[in-house]
Specification:
The complex is a heterodimer. By secondary structure, chain A is mostly helical. Helices cover 62% and strands 5% of the residues of chain A. In chain A, strand 3 and strand 4 form a beta hairpin. In chain A, helix 1 crosses helix 8 and helix 6 runs antiparallel to helix 8. By secondary structure, chain B is of the alpha/beta class. Chain B has 2 domains: 210 residues, P-loop containing nucleotide triphosphate hydrolases (Rossmann fold), CATH 3.40.50.300; 67 residues, Alpha-Beta Plaits (2-Layer Sandwich). Chain B is 32% helix and 27% strand. Chain B has a 6-stranded mixed β-sheet, sandwiched between helices. In chain B, strand 11 and strand 12 form a beta hairpin. The longest helix of chain B is centred in the middle third of the chain and has 16 residues. The termini of chain B are far apart. Classes of the chains: A mainly alpha, B alpha/beta. At the A-B interface, helix 1 and helix 7 of A face helix 2 and helix 3 of B.
C-alpha cells in the first residue's frame, strides 16, 4: 500500500499544495495580490473617468454691462457662468474657482484675465471669446461637422487595466517566489529538504506551478473587474491574451527565482526585489505611456520585460492585435525568462 | 515483519569515519576524527559549543563536504551517484529548522512522507510522536516541545535505519525533554541506530550506549558513559568553598582523594570513598584554621569527565 503512489502522494503535488495553502493563509499576501490591483483600478478609473465634455467656469464681474455678457456666455453649452463681486474677482481666479475672469467694458470691449500656460484655462478663454463674438453677430464660415462619439478602448481605464495586469504579474512573480525561498533558506528549511531524497527540480517547479494557479485568479480579478465596472474589452485574440499572461508570469517568476537565488535574509531579498522592480514601475508605462521618455532612453525602456508585457497586452486588448503582431514583445519576454532561469539555476544556493 | 534473521551477527558498523578534517577560512572545525558507530546503538557526540559536533554530523549526513578523510554511512560513501538511495534510509533532524508556520501538522508530515518511497502512513507517524490531537493545528500554534516532536516525526516518516539528531532537546522544558528521550528510546528498541549531538551530559548518560567527547575538533574521550566516569579513578565528587586561602597541596595528599581542582567559587575533589575523604578534609581545614562555607557531594558525571580533561565546563564558550 505504501508503494502505491497516487498523484496526491507525489512530492511535486505536496510541495505545490503546501506552497498554496501557505500563501492563502497569509491575509496580507492575498490582499496585495488580489484586492490591491482591483482597488487601484477602481480609484484610478473613477478619478479619470470620462463623463461628457468638461464645463469651464467663467466669472463675470458685477457692474454695468454684466447682464449682457452673461446672456452671451450662457448660450455656449460648455461654459458655466457665475457673477463675482469686483472685490472677490482676483481671489476667485487665484484659487482656481473660475478659469477666466471677464470684466465687461461698458463702454468699450470686455477684458479677459486667465492663465495662458494651462491648457484648460486656455480652452475656456477661447470658448469665452467665441461666445462673445457669436453674440455680437459673427457667423461661422467653414461649418465643420462635429463627430463627438467616444470610442471605447481609448479611455484612460482601457489604457490602465493592461498596465495593472502587467504590474501584478511582475509583483506576484517577484514576491510570490523570492520571498518564500529566502525565508526557507534563512530558516534552514531548504537545507532540511535537501536532507531528504526530494528532487531539487521538484522544489523549484512547485513554486512555478503554485504561481500559475494564482495567475489565473489574479488576472480574472483585475480583468473581470475592469469588464464589469468599466466595460473594458479584450478586442484581440483571447489565446494571445492568455499566452502573454502565461509567458509574462513565467518570466517574472524566473526573475524572482534569480533575485532569491543567493540572498540569505529577508532583508537582502527585499532590497534586491525593490531595486529590480522600481525601474520597471517608473519606466515601463503602466500608468502613463512610456513614449513620454526621451528618445535617448527608449532603447532601455523598450528592452524591459514589463514594457514588453504592457505593450503586448495593450495591443491585444485595445487594438485587437493577434499573436503575430505581438511577436516582438513576446520575444523580449521569452529572452528575459530563459536568461533569468538559467542564471538562477547556476547561482542558486541551497544552504 | 522481518525475514527470519540469519544467526550471523551484523558486524558492519552503521558509520565509519577515518581521519575526518574540515577547515573554514580561519577555524579548524574538525581536526582528525575517527569514529565507528555500531548498528543498533545510540551514540552521542558530546562537547561544548564550537567543539565541531555539528560540522561532523553534517558531513555524515552528506550536507557538508569534508576536506580530508573517509566517511562511510550504512556501507556507502557520499558521492553524488547513489545519494538519493542512501537518503531513503536516513532520518535527519537539523538544529533549528523552522517548519513553515501556517501549514498544519498533518500537512507537514504528508509533505515529508511524499519524499520517500516507503514508510508508515502519516497517521501512524503522528501516533508515534503523540501529536494526533494536534493533527490539524498550524505549526505556529505548537509549543516548543510539540514542534520538536513534529521535527522528529519528519525524520521518522521513512522508518529510517539510521537517525541523526543535532541537539534534539536544546531549549526545551524538562517534561518535553523526557518525552523526546522516550521517543528516541522507542526508536532504538525497534532496532534503529541513532547518532545524536548534545551539550547536556545528563542527556548523553540517559540515552547513549556510547559517547565521544569532542573538544576543539578532536575526540578526546570515547566509551560508554560508565567507562568514561570510571576513568576519573573515582566516582564521587565533593565540592566545597572556604573563607580565606587554602593550601591545596596538602588537601591533594588526603586519604581517598584522587584529584583536586579549583572551580568558580570553590574547590572540587574527586574521591573514592566520601566517608573517608570528608572527615579527613574537615580535619585538614581545622588544622589550616580555614572556615568551611559550603560542602556538597554528588556522583561523578560526564561533566566531571570533561572538566577534568579540559579544565573547562561544557557551558564555557
Amino acid at each position: 500500500m505504501s508503494e502505491r503512489r497516487a498523484l496526491a502522494a507525489t512530492p511535486l503535488w505536496q510541495l505545490t499544495r503546501v506552497r498554496m495553502v501557505g500563501f492563502l493563509r497569509e491575509p496580507e499576501a492575498v490582499f496585495w495580490v488580489f484586492a490591491f490591483p482591483v482597488l487601484m483600478a477602481l480609484a484610478l478609473g473613477i478619478a479619470f473617468r470620462s463623463s461628457g465634455p468638461p464645463r469651464s467656469r467663467i466669472g463675470v464681474v458685477d457692474g454695468p454691462g454684466a447682464a449682457a455678457v452673461i446672456t452671451a456666455l450662457q448660450a455656449a453649452h460648455d461654459l458655466e457662468v457665475v457673477r463675482v463681486a469686483s472685490s472677490d474677482a482676483e481671489a476667485a481666479l487665484r484659487r482656481g474657482r473660475i478659469a477666466v475672469l471677464v470684466r465687461p467694458g461698458d463702454p468699450g470691449a470686455p477684458v479677459l484675465t486667465f492663465d495662458p500656460t494651462r491648457a484648460e484655462t486656455r480652452l475656456a478663454q477661447l470658448a469665452t471669446v467665441e461666445a462673445l463674438e457669436h453674440a455680437a453677430g459673427r457667423r461661422d464660415v467653414v461649418g465643420a461637422t462635429l463627430d463627438t462619439r467616444v470610442r471605447a478602448g481609448s479611455r484612460y481605464i482601457d489604457f490602465l487595466i493592461p498596465g495593472l495586469i502587467g504590474l501584478n504579474l511582475l509583483g506576484t512573480g517577484m514576491w510570490g517566489i523570492g520571498f518564500p525561498i529566502a525565508t526557507a533558506r534563512q530558516q534552514k528549511l531548504l537545507k532540511r529538504m535537501l536532507a531528504t531524497p526530494m528532487r531539487r527540480s521538484d522544489y523549484l517547479l512547485s513554486h512555478m506551478l503554485a504561481r500559475l494557479v494564482w495567475l489565473v485568479m489574479e488576472v480574472v480579478a483585475v480583468l473581470g473587474f475592469g469588464m464589469l465596472a468599466f466595460g473594458v474589452q479584450v478586442r484581440g485574440s483571447w489565446l494571445a491574451f492568455a499566452l502573454v499572461n502565461l509567458l509574462g508570469a513565467v518570466t517574472f517568476s524566473a526573475l524572482g527565482l534569480l533575485v532569491a537565488s543567493r540572498a540569505r535574509t529577508i532583508e537582502a531579498v527585499s532590497g534586491l526585489m525593490n531595486v529590480t522592480m522600481m525601474p520597471m514601475w517608473l519606466l515601463s508605462g503602466s500608468f502613463f505611456s512610456a513614449d513620454r521618455f526621451p528618445t535617448a532612453m527608449q532603447w532601455l525602456v523598450q528592452a524591459l520585460p514589463l514594457t514588453a508585457v504592457n505593450n503586448a497586452l495593450r495591443a491585444i486588448m485595445s487594438e485587437g492585435a493577434g499573436l503575430l503582431t505581438v511577436a516582438t514583445p513576446l520575444g523580449i519576454i521569452v529572452a528575459w525568462g530563459v536568461a533569468s532561469f538559467f542564471a538562477a539555476l547556476a547561482l542558486f544556493r541551497w544552504e | 515483519m522481518s525475514a527470519p534473521a540469519p544467526s550471523v551477527p551484523r558486524v558492519d558498523p552503521a558509520i565509519r569515519v577515518r581521519g575526518l578534517a574540515k577547515r573554514y577560512a580561519d577555524v579548524v572545525a574538525v581536526n582528525g576524527v575517527d569514529l565507528e558507530i555500531r548498528a543498533g546503538e545510540c551514540f552521542g557526540l558530546l562537547g561544548p559549543n564550537g567543539a565541531g559536533k555539528t560540522t561532523t554530523i553534517e558531513i555524515l549526513e552528506g550536507l557538508n563536504r569534508p576536506d580530508e578523510g573517509d566517511v562511510q554511512v550504512l556501507g556507502q560513501r557520499w558521492t553524488g551517484g547513489a545519494d538519493r538511495a542512501l537518503r531513503e534510509r536516513l532520518g535527519i533532524q537539523l538544529q533549528e529548522t523552522k517548519l513553515q508556520e501556517k501549514v498544519s501538522v498533518l500537512e507537514t508530515i504528508e509533505l515529508f512522507r511524499s519524499f520517500y518511497r516507503r514508510g508508515p502512513d502519516p497517521d501512524e507517524v503522528l501516533r508515534r510522536v503523540a501529536l494526533e490531537e494536534k493533527r490539524n493545528a498550524w505549526v505556529v500554534k505548537l509549543s516548543g516541545g510539540q514542534r520538536q516532536r513534529l521535527s522528529l516525526a519528519c525524520a521518522l516518516v521513512n522508518d529510517p535505519e539510521l537517525l541523526f539528531l543535532d541537539e534534539p532537546t536544546t531549549g526545551l522544558d524538562p517534561q518535553s525533554r523526557r518525552q523526546l528521550w522516550d521517543l528516541i528510546d522507542e526508536f532504538r528498541d525497534r532496532g534503529g541506530t541513532t547518532l545524536l549531538t548534545t551539550h547536556y551530559m545528563d542527556e548523553a548518560e540517559r540515552l547513549c550506549d556510547r559517547v565521544a567527547i569532542m573538544d576543539h575538533g578532536r575526540v578526546i574521550a570515547l566509551g560508554t558513559p560508565a567507562e568514561l566516569i570510571a576513568s576519573l579513578g573515582a566516582e564521587h565528587v565533593v565540592e566545597f568553598s572556604v573563607a580565606g586561602t587554602l593550601d591545596v597541596a596538602s588537601v591533594e595528599r588526603l586519604l581517598s582523594v584522587r584529584q583536586v581542582r579549583q572551580e568558580a567559587g570553590g574547590f572540587a575533589l574527586i574521591v573514592v570513598e566520601p566517608h573517608i575523604a570528608i572527615p579527613a578534609l574537615l580535619a585538614e581545614l581545622a588544622r589550616q584554621n580555614v572556615e568551611l562555607h559550603r560542602l556538597t557531594t554528588h556522583h561523578a558525571t560526564l561533566e566531571d569527565v570533561f572538566v577534568s580533561m579540559t579544565g573547562r565546563t561544557l557551558r564555557d564558550e
